Amino acid sequence: QRSVQSVKLVLLGEAAVGKSSLVLRFVSNDFQENKEPTIGAAFLTQRCSLGNNKTIKFEIWDTAGQERFASLAPMYYRNAQAALVVYDITKPNSFIKARHWVKELKEQASQGIIIALIGNKVDILEEDESLRKVSLEEGENLAKEEELLFFETSAKTSFNVNDVFLAIGNKIPNN
Ligand code: GTP
Ligand code: MG
C-alpha cells in the first residue's frame, strides 16, 4: 500500500525572484508573466509520488520577499522540514540575499532541515546569454559549502521545477 507523508516546505528569497511562480508551476503547471507580489504569505498543497510506493504531500508556505514582510519569515520556516532558497540568476543581489537566508536557516530553523538552493529564470539566457549575472559555478560552490541541493530552474518553461520537489521528497527520511 502507498504511504502518504506530509512535508512542510517554505520558500524564501528576495522579492520577484519567482518563488510564487515556481509554486504555481509545481501546483498548477501554469505561469503568469505579471504575477502580483505575495502579501504576507500564501499556503498551497501538492502531492508528489515518488518511485518507491511513497507519496509526499507538500504543505507549502510561499513567503513574501518584500522587505516589509521580513519579520514574518521565522513563523514560516520555524517548523519546516524543507526550504527552497531562491535567487534570480540575472540579479546578483538576490544571490547575496540567498546566502543570508541559508545562514539564517542553519542558525534558526529545525536541525536537519533539507535546503535546496534555486537559481531561477534561466530561460532569460535563451534571448541573451550576457544577462546571466550569477554563474552556475557560484551557485554550485555555495551549495557544496553549505551541503544544499542545487538546481537552476525556469518557472516560465518549467525547466527542472518538478525535479526540485522530487529531489527533496527523496531526501525526506521515512517517519
Ligand atoms: P514576492 O512574492 O514579491 O516575494 O515575489 P516572488 O519571488 O513570488 O516572484 P513572482 O513569482 O511573483 O515573480 C516575479 C516576476 O518574475 C513575475 O512577473 C513573473 O512572471 C516573473 N518570473 C517568475 N519566474 C520566472 C522565470 O522563471 N522566468 C522568467 N522569465 N520570469 C519569471
Ligand atoms: Mg510571491
From TrEMBL:
This is Vacuolar protein sorting-associated protein 21. Keywords: Nucleotide-binding. The chain holds residues 4 to 178 of 215 of the full protein. The keyword Cytoplasm does not apply. GO terms for molecular function: GTP binding; GTPase activity.
